Amino acid sequence: MTSDGFDGREREKGHRDYTGSKLGMWLFLATEVFFFAALFLLYAAYRLRYAEGFRQASSSLSLFAGTVNTAVLITSSLTAALSVAAIRRGRKNHSTLLLLTTVGLGAVFLVNKYFEWQDKFSHGIYPDSAVLAGLGGAESVFYGLYFFTTGMHALHVIGGVALLCLVAALVYTGRVDGQDSIRLENSVLYWHLVDVIWIYIFPLFYLIG
Amino acid sequence: MSEESRTLRYGAYVLVWAGLLLLTLLTVAASRVFAGVLGHVALPLLIATVKAGLVVFFFMHLKYERGIFRSIPLAVVLVFMVLFLFLFSDVAFR
């Protein structure tokens, strides 16, 4: 490989700008953070107004499920970070396995979330339900924020899972490797962000009850 | 040589992971032990920020990246603080 990163393979793919790619990814992540920051600000404003109602509604969420989900995402961040370390050491199969583990843990998170939501639905609590309308301002706002925030987060988890599956295929077939790992690294950065967002969702919705 | 920042040893990532799990247990315990603003707001959010910091600096590698990368999360935090301040200077006095 020449000093500017070109080799025969590079010329087929075109020039890759490692730093530029990574910078672009961080900028994109910043926009994602602002999206959730807006939701957190909304939460903060309404929490101030409806402190007691929020506390009551929060106690109806399963602390166990929330804690397990937090542990699941933290572990998935570990396996994702390790997959990058592995590819840098040229360990393609390790890296692929770690990525698939990350995907698996993401799936566990989603299944857990499904059961949490299902529990709420079975009590007639879902966006725009009659039960919710009858509960009064505080609780309906809490649940509205809960469904929207965790729903948006879950969409991000699904997107991250899809992305990681794609990248796992690229790693396994050798199209991403230690010399050209930016697509893996950026995908893993996205996954870490999904974890960081949940790290804030958890105390805000689960720990105030 | 490209400007790629080094990765950590596997063990370092595992250590950070263990710390994150510990902090998770700590934050749950704090919310059960302490009541009111301390236990339900201040401590959990503080611990959450420490956890987020661990993920951002070690898993996302920001500690080992050059300054321009660090300026992005910094800018986000600053803007968020401004938004928070302005929102609360209104909402808190209604």
Briefly characterize the structure.
Chain A has one domain (14-206): Cytochrome c oxidase, subunit III, four-helix bundle (Four Helix Bundle (Hemerythrin (Met), subunit A)).
Descriptive overview:
The complex is a heterodimer of chains A (209) and B (94). By secondary structure, chain A is an all-alpha fold. Chain A has a single domain (14-206), classed as Four Helix Bundle (Hemerythrin (Met), subunit A) (Up-down Bundle), CATH 1.20.120.80. Chain A has helices at 8-13, 18-49, 51-58, 63-88, 92-122, 130-135, 137-172, 182-206. In chain A, α4 (63-88) packs antiparallel against α5. The mean pLDDT of chain A is 92. Chain B has 94 residues and is mainly alpha-helical. Chain B folds into 2 domains: 9-60; 66-94. In chain B, 78% of the residues lie in helices and 0% in strands. Chain B is built from 3 helices and no strands. The radius of gyration of chain B is 17 Å and the shape is flat. The mean pLDDT of chain B is 92.
Average residue pLDDT of chain B: 92
Question: How many individual helices of chain A?
Answer: 8
**Mean pLDDT of chain A, as a whole number?**
92
Question: In whole angstroms, how far apart are the ends of chain B?
Answer: 59 Å
Please give the alpha-carbon distance between the first and last residues of chain A: 58 Å
Give the number of DSSP strands of chain A. 0
Which structural class best describes the helix and strand composition of chain A?
mainly alpha
Largest interface: A-B, 46 and 47 residues
**Tally of helical segments of chain B:** 3
In terms of quaternary structure, what is this?
heterodimer
- Name the beta content range of chain B: under 5%
Spans of at least 5 consecutive residues with low confidence of chain B: none
Please state the CA-atom Rg of chain A, rounded to the nearest Å: 20 Å
- Main CATH class of chain A: Mainly Alpha
Order of helices and strands of chain A: HHHHHHHH
The SS-based structural class of chain B is mainly alpha
Radius of gyration of chain B: 17 Å
